[in-house]
Amino acid sequence: MFDIRWIRENPEDFDWGLARRGLEPISARLIEIDKNHRAALTTAQECKAERNKLSKLIGAAKAKGEDAAETIAKVSESKKIEADAEEKASTFGAELEEVMSALPNIPADDVPDGEDETSNIEIRKVGDIPPFDFEPKDHVALGEGLGMMDFERAAKLSGARFVVLSSALARMERALGAFMLDMHTTEFGYRETNPPALVRSEALYGTGQLPKFGEDLFKTEEGFWLIPTAEVPLTNLVANEILDESSLPRRVTAMTACFRSEAGAAGQDTRGMIRQHQFTKVELVSIAHPDESDAELERMTGCAEEVLKRLGLAYRTIILCSGDMGFSARKTYDIEVWLPAQDRYREISSCSNCGDFQARRMRTRFKPEGKKDTVFVNTLNGSGLAVGRTLIAILENYQQEDGSIVVPDALRPYMGGLDVIQAESD
User: Fold this and answer.
1) Of 425 and 148, which is predicted with more confidence?
2) Domain 117-421, CATH 3.30.930.10 — does that match?
3) For residues 287 and 364, what is the distance between their CA atoms, to the nearest angstrom?
4) Are 295 and 316 in contact (CB under 8 A)?
5) Domain boundaries, the chain
6) Which of 198, 279, 321, 326 can pair with 119 through a Cys bridge, CB separation 3.0 to 4.6 Å?
7) For helices 293-311 and 167-186, angle between their N-to-C axes, nearest 10 degrees
8) Tens digit of pLDDT for each residue in 42-53?
9) In three state form, how does the secondary structure of 233-280 look?
10) Contact indicator for 154, 163 with CB cutoff of 8 Å
């Protein structure tokens, strides 16, 4: 959401920001709706002021025994005009919110311009791509070969885009989540949280998934939504609150199941665990001071990268161009891990600074010390990491020719000291 006062004062900058997103200018329409909204509010306020004066005149006339019928008629007419003005104000206000709520965030100045992922820019590459003296298998062949990854039985239970993990792979998924949470909480100052996986529409509106992306979500008959990411409940923990400036930044993390319908991903990554309806993710969320959010984004991205460093996985970090960013983001770094079977890097984390875009939708502010007015906070979110995709990366990068998987050193304490995952005997 945007500050309409800023749009009135900077219409060209606003339209330019939307143009970088590939959208047509809309400031003139917003300003016109806002003008009508404010005019209707003014009329309603003027009617109230006039009616107060008329009421005094009626009282004075009655005290003198004079006829006040004409003044009473004016009061009645004023009420009708006020009611009409309030109805118009409500209509224009709702229209303004509806139009603005469908608009994405404005890219930061240092975000590269571009229409799609071909304009993203690589920032750094870290780690060595592992050499193989055999043809590496993909995670599906490896998991099924171990007897611990079952898509057929998952389809029997739930349909396509689900998986059943068992034995050492089920334990590895649990181990990865615990490893990530331990690192983020004990070393990086994130507060572990266990939020609900079902949320109301207001929460999804606050973080920008609604109203535009409802088709990508699962909804219950009772009106709750399954979370697409823990970003939704974690960020909304501070919705409609005025925070103490001294409490910023607030950093929280959670490992949750996430649910996405993948309505816009038909035909993409249909094989394996890359793109599923249900997956596990460790999420990082920061509620930050506006002056510190850029630095907080760099910090958060570093926290996510550290997971890959300790697991010994090669990755690269890219900055997304204006046309490839998510709806609520003003700046995003994607972290992509190397997958040998695909011979390329694939996204495993996305870390974004949303500025005050979500905070305005959630009405989350803080009061600067010594200042009278409140200020909207900045919100940031990132995967730290997507657990299933990390599992995939380990399978493919640590595979041996016989199909067994070496367990990374950092995970062995969480795996009961297991150092190699072998195929289960029949």
Assistant:
1) 148
2) yes
3) 10
4) no
5) 4-101, 117-421
6) 321
7) 140
8) 998 888 887 677
9) HHHHHHCCCEEEHHHCCEEEEEEEEEECCCCCCCCCCCCCCCCCCEEE
10) yes
Percent of the chain clearing pLDDT 90 (strictly above): 85
**Spatial distance between the Cα atoms of 52 and 191, rounded to a whole number of angstroms:** 54
* Catalytic residue positions, numbered: 260, 275, 347, 350, 389
CATH topology of domain 4-101: Helix Hairpins (1.10.287)
Listed residue (292, 289, 262, 251) closest to 382, CA to CA: 251
Q: What is the pLDDT of residues 82-108, one digit of tens each?
A: 888 999 999 999 999 999 999 999 999
Closest by Cα among 272, 158, 156, 157 to 218: 158
Which residues does 131 contact at the CB level (< 8 Å), separation at least 6? none
Residue pair 136/399 in contact by the 8 Å Cβ criterion: yes
Cβ atoms within 10 Å, residue 382: 26
pTM for the complete prediction? 0.92
CA distances 42 to 81, 82, 169, Å, are: 12, 10, 65
Residue 355 burial (CB count, 10 A): 24
In the block, residue with structure tokens 């990530």 = 180
Strands 405-406 and 420-421 come out as antiparallel
Average pLDDT value over all residues in the chain: 93
For residues 207 and 231, the answer to whether their CB atoms sit within 8 Å is yes
* Nearest by Cα to 328 from 16, 7, 106, 13: 106
- What is the predicted pLDDT for the residue at 234? 98
Of the candidates 305, 328, 315, the residue with the CA atom closest to the CA atom of residue 205: 328
| Residue 7 banded pLDDT, cuts 50, 70, 90 | very high
Predicted local confidence at residue 424, as pLDDT: 81
Contacts (Cβ under 8 Å, ≥6 apart) of 423 = 145, 146, 147, 403, 404
Which sign does the torsion angle of CA 139, 143, 149, 151 carry?
Answer: positive
